[in-house]
Amino acid sequence: MNDMASPTAQVRYETPAPHVARIVMARPEAHNAQGLQMTYELNEAFNRAAHDDDIKVVILAAEGRNFSAGHDLSGDGKKTWRDFPIVGTWAGFDASGAEARYGREMEIYLEMCERWRNLSKPTIAAVQGKCIAGGLMLAWVCDLIVCSDDATFKDPVIDFGICGVEFFNHPWELGIRKAKEMLFTADEVTAQEAAQHGMVNRVVPRAELEATVLAMAQKIATKPAFALKATKQAVNHVQDVQGRRNAQMHVFSLHHLLHTHNELVYGMPMDPNGLPETVREKVFARIARAKAEKAAKGE
Ligand code: ZN
Questions:
Q1: Average pLDDT of each block of 10 consecutive residues along the chain (299 residues)?
Q2: Domain at 37, CATH number
Q3: How far does the centroid of ligand 1 lie from the alpha carbon of residue 128, in Å?
Q4: DSSP state of 189
Q5: What is the pTM of this model?
């Protein structure tokens, strides 16, 4: 039941049971790293589920060993974001400097996640294996999270001179102290720790993940559609009047201050000290060359 398939499709749209849609990230060879193609395919799939009155519950799942390796910073193919329909109101193609990066991250990260988080229907993430950085944002936008007992959650962006991923939900997911530990140390949070701190609803053996999530979705799908939507909005509204959105917007500014700082110091939006050793040496050599060229020109 996949009628979104195309040669470049990285996302499948399935209807595994009445009133249930399942959106599957299907790029297992790249550990479901999320590039532009996947981002806009996910958005299309979420829209489709939202607009179909027959669908009451939406599952977000991932094919393969790992849920998501995070954002695909290397790009996935030759497409640029000019090749995709912009859905927000911030981004433009011709901006430069910090404006370009802010607009781009607002479009493809922050506002995209906010839109998915605010989808009118209940969503359930089924997480297995590794869920890293941008992958957290995909799980966190869902209303419920069920994970396998081998799942781990990690935000390592401090190693790259950044204060957490763009959709900054860590304190809401884990509580203040565990969120700080996760961010300061860049250590993995285990499935058991995630459950203990309220970040996930259930931890199940890997072999039972799909069936558990589907059963949960089917149970929810027996409830009245409008009451489900209103209940979701009620709980989300409670979180928002507690300041979630305000806090996220503040952190997004800090996030971009750090991108710009790294650009000024290293000539790239991330601190290269976080890169693997082999890559790091090449990057520092490139930075030194650029500095020497500038000095030779008397700049
Ligand atoms: Zn960023």
A1: 59 98 96 94 97 98 97 77 88 87 94 98 98 98 98 98 98 98 98 98 98 98 98 98 97 98 94 90 87 83
A2: 3.90.226.10
A3: 25
A4: E
A5: 0.93
Q: Among candidates 285, 96, 70, which has minimal Cα distance to 159?
A: 70
Strand order across the 130-132 sheet: 130-132, 152-154, 189-190
107 CA to centre of ligand 1 in angstroms = 11
Domain boundaries, position 106: 11-266
Indicate the number of domains in the chain.
Answer: 1
What is the 124 CA–ligand 1 centroid distance (Å)? 25
Between the CA of 142 and the centroid of ligand 1 the distance, in Å, is 21
Nearest to 127 by CA among 154, 104, 150: 150
Query: What's the gap in Å between 159 CA and the centre of ligand 1?
Result: 13
Tell me if 110 is assigned to some domain. Answer: yes
Ligand 1 centroid to 172 CA: how many Å? 20
Ligand 1 center from residue 259 Cα (angstroms) = 7
